[in-house]
Design a protein that fits this description.
- By secondary structure, this protein is mainly beta.
- 6% of the residues lie in helices and 30% in strands.
- It contains two helices and 13 strands, in the order ββββββαβαββββββ.
- The strands form four sheets. Strands 1, 2, 3, 4, 5, 6 and 7 form a seven-stranded mixed beta sheet that branches.
Length: 207
């Protein structure tokens, strides 16, 4: 899954989706083979799940992204497993089962998306669910590299391992990871534009 701090939704292709791409792992969610699957409908779903455009028995969702891609499908609930120092941790969580992928979602290598935005437009995130169910620390961190990376959920920060002079930047919004930009420096040269030039700037790992 692609980790995206600009989205609050976790989603992957449904089994039998004819409008989904051929991704590297080829993972598809098949409710028929899961003994722990809980069907969600517009009339029966957890309070934290948002259904949009209800026209049938399923709980539908649809998300369009700024660069033109779109995913759509219906919400389901099943168990999600995490690895930890204490062994496997399992929680029930709701996520999207995609029946439509367009643009980059159709052609990307990853099977789907996992969102960490605090916006909550589609209900609480997978991390929110983990924090509530297991009482973990409400913090996550990402390390991105050219070939791999790491995503750590619920762990405290060991500041002694950070590079000397690391600065913390406060968020300026509760609906997204907005930060205030003072200036950009390119090849050592600041642009020198007023900070108001940059308007609202978000930290979005999916961009």
């Amino acid at each position: 899954l692609i980790v995206d701090t600009g989205s609050a939704l976790m989603a992957m292709p449904c089994a039998g989706c004819s409008q989904c791409g051929h991704h590297k792992a080829g993972a598809r969610f098949d409710a028929r083979t899961s003994s722990t699957n809980v069907p969600l409908t517009c009339m029966s779903h957890p309070d934290y799940v948002r259904c949009s455009g209800c026209a049938g028995s399923e709980c539908p969702y649809s998300v369009s992204y700024a660069e033109g891609s779109r995913i759509a499908g219906h919400m389901v609930q099943d168990v999600v497993h995490f690895s930890s120092d204490a062994g496997r941790v399992t929680i029930p969580a709701a996520f999207g089962c995609q029946t439509l992928e367009t643009g980059l979602f159709n052609s990307q290598v990853a099977d789907g998306i996992i969102g960490f935005s605090p916006g909550g437009g589609y209900g609480r995130t997978l991390h929110d669910t983990l924090v509530e169910a297991k009482k973990t620390h409400n913090v996550f961190s990402m390390c991105l590299a050219e070939t791999d990376g790491a995503l750590v959920l619920g762990a405290t920060i060991d500041e002694s391992r950070l590079p000397p002079g690391t600065q913390w930047v406060p968020f300026t919004s509760t609906s997204a990871y907005n930060v205030g930009v003072a200036d950009f420096t390119i090849a050592g040269q600041p642009l020198g534009l007023p900070s108001s030039t940059y308007l609202s700037t978000i930290v979005d790992s999916g961009t």
